[in-house]
Design goal:
The protein starts with a strand and ends with a helix. The protein has 19 helices and nine strands. The chain has 406 residues and is an alpha/beta fold. An eight-stranded mixed beta barrel has the order 1-2-3-4-5-6-7-8.
């Protein structure tokens, strides 16, 4: 595992209620300022660390997320990977109003996304974007003349104004007089540096998937089989589905189903976004090994239990998801489970609820703890062959020994 970072700065309305948070790129402990040199990489890092790794409830608490996007990421359709219920698409001042950018912005607006302009001043070259934008951010470190000229145009075009880099009470009052609906800056709060530990996808697995996705005849089943060997990618894929569809989406029972919901075009963009981050080149840590082993053994148990084999893929995914329980404290695990769009059977299995899934997952844990009395209870309850069960366990051990040979 390694430390990953991003920062969060609140955006408040004129009554000091939090409307949303701007999520900002950070990459060093104790350094709370922008140190990036590539806008695409910086945005990819923020999205990967804030949305695909962290607990979204703890990051946003139901508020909007303002995220900066470059022209390249807008053209690729990357914002569409996050639900319009969550995301405010913030266009960096470097984004040029080309025909392709205008087309993409119109698509985003039709899908319900809020567009914000960051550090733009109104002129002939930015007019088209001003007309499309919902929110215009006024940089309070600019000249008063520039601020008021842009504010006047925003009022004329009926645009919502957000004063940023507000540092004093006088600037707060000035923002209100200009007609700003929202404010952001050190006067209210400095960006909060957020740090947590996370695993990154395995480079070897990622490159294999990259080849499959961009092959002349990509196949969901083949891609799903490769993703299922990488715990980190699997969890990020599930978080992506949740970000795109929220509670309105179908619950996932297999990785193949998640890929079908995603579609090839969005799959390509997701893989592109993942690839912008540094990939893990070392052997995965023991927690990832354990999750892979549990996935394989859960699937193997389904072969032994009468009538359970039809659930083998769901059982595999349940074992893989056990890494969530292993890296989350008991207090917040229910929130994490809510943010993973897996079926209730899989969730209940992971929290040890009664039923087939819970029994199978407990059996896996009992084997790990060598609790043979409980293993015997499972054998009797499901009338399975204890020796066959033990043979499957040994096969899984051998599989894991061979899996990481490079």
């Amino acid at each position: 595992m390694e430390n990953v970072f991003f920062a969060r700065q609140p955006i408040l309305d004129v009554n000091n209620n939090t409307y949303g948070y701007e999520l900002l790129y950070r990459n060093q402990p104790g350094v709370n300022q922008y140190t990036g040199d590539n806008g695409d990489v910086s945005t990819a890092d923020v999205i990967n660390n804030a949305f695909f790794v962290d607990n979204l409830t703890s990051v946003l608490d139901g508020k909007k997320a303002f995220v900066n996007f470059t022209g390249n990421l807008i053209e690729r359709g990357v914002p569409k990977m996050i639900s319009s219920d969550i995301l405010v698409v913030e266009l960096l001042e470097s984004v040029v109003a080309s025909p392709e950018i205008i087309k993409r912005c119109l698509e985003l607006k039709k899908l319900g996304y809020i567009l914000a302009l960051d550090d733009y001043e109104y002129n002939d070259s930015t007019r088209a974007l001003f007309e499309l934008a919902d929110i215009v951010k006024l940089d309070f470190r600019s000249s008063r003349e520039a601020i008021e000229r842009t504010a006047s145009k925003c009022i004329e075009l009926n645009k919502t104004m957000l004063a940023e880099k507000v540092e004093t009470q006088l600037e707060v009052e000035y923002a209100k007089r200009l007609g700003c609906s929202y404010m952001q800056g050190y006067f209210f709060a400095k960006p909060l540096l957020m740090t947590h530990k996370a695993n990154t996808p395995m480079a070897k697995t990622f490159l294999h998937i990259l080849g499959l996705v961009y092959s002349p005849d990509p196949d969901y089943e083949e891609i799903a089989a490769v993703i299922s060997t990488d715990v980190v990618l699997t969890i990020r894929l599930l978080r992506l589905i949740n970000l795109m569809y929220g509670n309105s989406g179908n619950k996932i029972s297999t990785i193949h189903q998640a890929l079908v919901m995603l579609g090839f075009e969005k799959l390509k963009e997701w893989i592109y976004l993942v690839g912008l981050q540094r990939l893990q080149k070392d052997t995965p840590d023991e927690l990832i090994r354990l999750a892979l082993f549990r996935a394989k053994f859960c699937e193997s148990v389904s072969k032994v239990v009468p009538g359970a084999y039809i659930h083998r893929k769901e059982m595999y995914l349940m074992g893989l998801m056990s890494i969530v329980a292993g890296t989350t404290d008991e207090k917040s695990i229910n929130n994490v489970m809510k943010e993973l769009p897996v079926t209730d059977e899989i969730k209940n299995g992971l929290i040890g609820a009664d039923g087939l899934y819970g029994d199978v997952f407990r059996l896996v844990i009992d084997y790990e703890h060598a609790d043979w009395n409980k293993v015997e209870e499972f054998v009797k309850k499901y009338d399975v062959d204890a020796q066959q069960l033990a043979n499957e366990y040994v096969k899984c051990i051998r599989f894991m020994q061979q899996f990481y040979i490079r």
